[in-house]
Amino acid sequence: MGGTSAEREVSLDSGRNVLEALRARGVDADAVDGIPALIEAIRHGGVDRVFNILHGNKGGGEDGVLQGLLEALGVPYTGPGVLGSALTMDKIRTKQVWIAAGLPTPRFARIAKGDDLAAAAKALGFPVFVKPSSEGSSVGVFRVLQEADLAPAIAFAQGYDGELLMEQMVQGDEYTVGILGETALPSIRIVPAGEWYDYHAKYIADDTQYLCPGMDGDAEDEIRGVALAAFKAAGCTGWGRVDVMRDRVRGLQLIEVNTAPGMTSHSLVPKAAGHVGIGFEELCWRILEQTVRSPLSNTTEAAPK
């Protein structure tokens, strides 16, 4: 938990909740803040397996770096492996894979440092979203309805070293689908009180509505199927969350994958799991249970204590 990414505070909150849940199930679990501390704990022989609830990159454990370290050291861990984690942390490359697989996602442009945002937006057509390709939790996201709204995004781009994703704005409803093993959990339709689902609506506001399941009948089957296909196409296994929107004209549009979703009081995977009778403690146990079978072999280890 914790770490040094831009999502540190959310990760600490998630980590506290997961730690309490695991201990309530009798698991001998301890909090470890960040990757260097984890390396020290492993070095001293105190780690059997890792419940990874770090978020983000650059010191967060959601970008494949931690996963590669743990595989090299032979330590089982929760969530997708190196490929799925690294790929989905990069929204641009994830979309390229989805397009190659024939899965629906909004048109986009890759913005390198120094590129002309105004020209890119005109080519795509307003309105657009501008966001870092490799951040999460709505960090550095700009909603641009017209050219006059570009100034904050341009200012951010000038001080940001990574690539930016500029994406056509989807005109329609927002959904998310939790993945647990081979199962897509019921979709959740997200209805923020404001104009869009920003950081405040995700983690602070209490007036955001979450409707579960988000759809009915065949439409619900479709969104779960598309989400699970997107998760697998990106090389992901274990558990995660796929964000989807339904455009009024183009239908379902894939937005991104989260490979270590939040586990806070506002988080969505626990809400979806609860809808099918899986409480928070049970959810954490089922995620931990996935570490029993090593992703590197067909051998089964002893069940977690």
Would you kindly provide a written description of the structure presented here, covering whatever features stand out?
GO terms for molecular function: ATP binding; D-alanine-D-alanine ligase activity; metal ion binding. This is D-alanine--D-alanine ligase. The protein has 305 residues and is of the alpha+beta class. It folds into three domains: 8-78, 3-Layer(aba) Sandwich (Rossmann fold); 87-103 and 171-283, ATP-grasp fold, B domain (D-amino Acid Aminotransferase, Chain A, domain 1, 2-Layer Sandwich); 108-168, 2-Layer Sandwich (Dna Ligase, domain 1). It has helices at 8-24, 35-43, 65-73, 82-89, 91-100, 117-124, 151-159, 199-203, 217-233, 268-275, 280-289; strands spanning 108-111, 128-132, 142-144, 164-168, 172-180, 183-184, 188-191, 209-211, 239-247, 251-258. Helix 1 (8-24) crosses helix 11 (280-289).
List the helices and strands and how they pair.
Layout: H1 8-24, H2 35-43, H3 65-73, H4 82-89, H5 91-100, E1 108-111, H6 117-124, E2 128-132, E3 142-144, H7 151-159, E4 164-168, E5 172-180, E6 183-184, E7 188-191, H8 199-203, E8 209-211, H9 217-233, E9 239-247, E10 251-258, H10 268-275, H11 280-289
Helix pairs in contact: 1-11
